Amino acid sequence: MTAHQHGHHENPPADTDPARFWDERYSQSDRIWSGRVNPVLAEVAADLSPGTVLDLGSGEGGDAIWLAARGWRVTAVDVSSVALDRLAAEAERAGVAERITTLRHDVTQGFPPGRFDLVSAQFFQSPLVLPREKVLPPAAAAVAPGGRLLVVEHGAPPPWSGLDPDDPRFATPEEILAAVDLDADGWEIERLGAAHRTATHDGHTGELVDHVVLVRRR
């Protein structure tokens, strides 16, 4: 489910099966993502005591393995069995497999059970239809008392993409927060805004913008 897509590919038909789409996407190469932890997640988790974490759209496991290596007990969820197989193999190599549970699940069709100290939704933008208002409220419901929900999305297309910076698929932090549909009395907003980082792609270096929502259940 993880989607660091930037719109390079035409969007598939609306009735495309997500599991088949992502299995085929992952099968096109030995590795799709960098294998590194997403930087905002690393920054947030560094200040927290390790506990239980739900990693939504875990992909090949860059975040899950990083968290497990720091003592978190990770439930890694993805719609692609190909991605989860890679995650499990990487977790074995990293010596953290006993702290990671993989779960193949389409979160648009339901949500895994349990309550977690941290629920992480990193870069859920997708070539497929993936409505925030359907996925993010159950993600918040999975947060234990005192726990946190972290949502990070691309805030703008990368400078090398050729896409319009005002493309409506890039929601503002406030729009992302609104889609979570929180009970204001039960939550504290800890972070709402943009984070900037430098990245390189095919020899081009530019600044990327991430939109960040971090909320804590009271």
TrEMBL record:
MF terms in GO: methyltransferase activity
Protein's name according to its UniProt entry: Methyltransferase domain-containing protein
UniProt keyword annotation of Transcription present: no
Skewed-composition ranges (Basic and acidic residues): 8-20
Keywords: Methyltransferase, S-adenosyl-L-methionine, Transferase
Gene3D superfamilies reported for this sequence: Vaccinia Virus protein VP39
Domain Methyltransferase: 53-147
Disordered, as annotated region: 1-20
Gene Ontology biological process terms in this record: methylation
